[in-house]
Amino acid sequence: FLARKTLFNNKLFGALIRKVNTHPVSGAPGDIQVFKTITALLQQGHKVVLFPEGTRSEDGRLKPLKPGISLLVERSKSAIIPVYIDGAYEIWGKNRRLPKPFGKVRCVFGSPITWDSVAHLDKREAQLLITQKLEDAWHALKSWLANGAIGIPP
């Protein structure tokens, strides 16, 4: 996982997120060190969990995806596995200090999105398409879950 480095300032929470193998990043736009950290982790064979919106939603709806995710796919040639997380906002919305003690969070994993599927395109066009595919996958997973989760997730 990657997390904004200020989250590590709280001793208890910082210790907790370190235990789940979270790496601090600045979160500043254009911070090249974030890309270097992620690329190094991927090259070492690690899986990296990213939240391509960059922050939690204020209202539970998908925010615009940051363009860096497609740049990482292009540079690392790694696949993205889209994930729809349902219920997290209701349990711990951005404006809540602490999470609700009870609730249900569901994660649905979609089909991988690979660089190979867009490698034949111009680099910029391919990056835009990766971002669009990720957003489309997120909406498809949300719809699949809302419609009863019948069959294999898209």
Question: Summary?
Answer:
The chain has 154 residues and is mostly helical. The chain has 5 helices and 4 strands, in the order E-H-E-H-H-E-H-E-H. The strands form 2 sheets. It has a two-stranded parallel sheet with strand order 1-2.
Structure description:
The protein contains 5 helices and 4 strands. The chain has 154 residues and is mainly α. The chain has a two-stranded parallel sheet. A two-stranded antiparallel ribbon has the order 3-4. Helix 1 links the parallel strand 1 and strand 2. The two termini are 24 Å apart. The relative contact order is 0.12. The mean pLDDT is 88.
Question: What is Rg?
Answer: 16 Å
Q: Please state the average pLDDT score.
A: 88
Structural class: mainly alpha
Q: Bin the strand percentage.
A: 5-15%
Q: What is the helix/strand order?
A: EHEHHEHEH
Which helices and strands occur, and which strands form pairs?
Elements: E1 2-4, H1 11-19, E2 23-25, H2 32-43, H3 68-76, E3 83-86, H4 88-92, E4 106-109, H5 123-146
Characteristic key phrases:
154 residues; mainly alpha; two-stranded parallel sheet; two-stranded antiparallel sheet; 5 helices; 38% helix; 9% strand
